[in-house]
Amino acid sequence: MRKYWSFFRIRFIAGLQYRAAALAGICTQFFWGTMTLLLYRAFYQNGGSAFPMTFPELSCYIWLQQASLGMFMAWSFDEDIFSGILSGGVSYELCRPADLYAMWFTKNMALRMSRTALRCLPILLVAAFLPEPFRLLPPPDLFCFLGFVVSLLLGFLVLVAFSMLVYISAFYTLSTSGVRILVVSVVEFFSGFVIPLPFFPEALQPFVRALPFASMQSTPFLVYSGNLSGGELAGAVGMQAVWLIVLLVFGRLWMAKTLKRVVVQGG
């Protein structure tokens, strides 16, 4: 266990070195969040009350999305892993007395958390002092806050577990560009990154919410805003736990099968 903590700590500290990039990211995300809210505000002012979320709930959703972008952005991958597979450097990692799946999983967690650590708090602080209805409000009650914390952790782990499948797929191709483009497009759309899932047609809601992508960022943000509560909250968090187990088991089995015969694509 100590070696995986060392992998996590080294990767996390390395990610904290890019302070200028973090500052640029804060400005970009705050600007993007503001423009998104102004766009939705125009629809809300001219569309009556036929919306699945109140505007304050939507504001919370957007600001949480921007603050945790480093944690949940689908296009964030560890390029060292891809380059190691494609260059043959992964053969050295296979010689280490460590589980490759656990090592990559730990490094991915550290990479995403380091990118979030530098950007999250400034965005949340500024958003909390904006005028209504644009500002970030606190959760409706303590139960929603606790549910949000649990759901946020599960959603983060589900995304990392899903990302592991993309890394494993790199063993079977000479270029990862096609798989990455497809995965990013699907995840962004069905995870509520482009449009919050409550805005999807009602006929599609059961299908969309049953996918693993809804268990990533959509569920914790909806829990925080109070859009999911009571039985719906428990069901959504339970779905996250189920998908986490499924993805972990499938990922480990696929990794074990892949490593039985590794073709090194390098010198």
Tag the structure with descriptive keywords.
about 270 residues, mainly alpha, about 0% strand
What's the rounded overall pLDDT mean? 85
- Kindly report how far apart the N and C termini lie: 32 Å
State the helicity in percent bands.
55-70%
- What amount of the residues lies in strands? under 5%
Global morphology = globular
| Class per helix and strand makeup | mainly alpha
Low-confidence regions: none
Q: How is the biggest beta sheet arranged?
A: none
Q: Given the structure, what is the number of helices?
A: 13
The SSE string, one letter per element, is HHHHHHHHHHHHH
Kindly provide the radius of gyration, computed on alpha-carbon positions and rounded to a whole number of angstroms.
Answer: 20 Å
The tally of beta strands, per DSSP, is: 0
Tally of distinct domains: 1
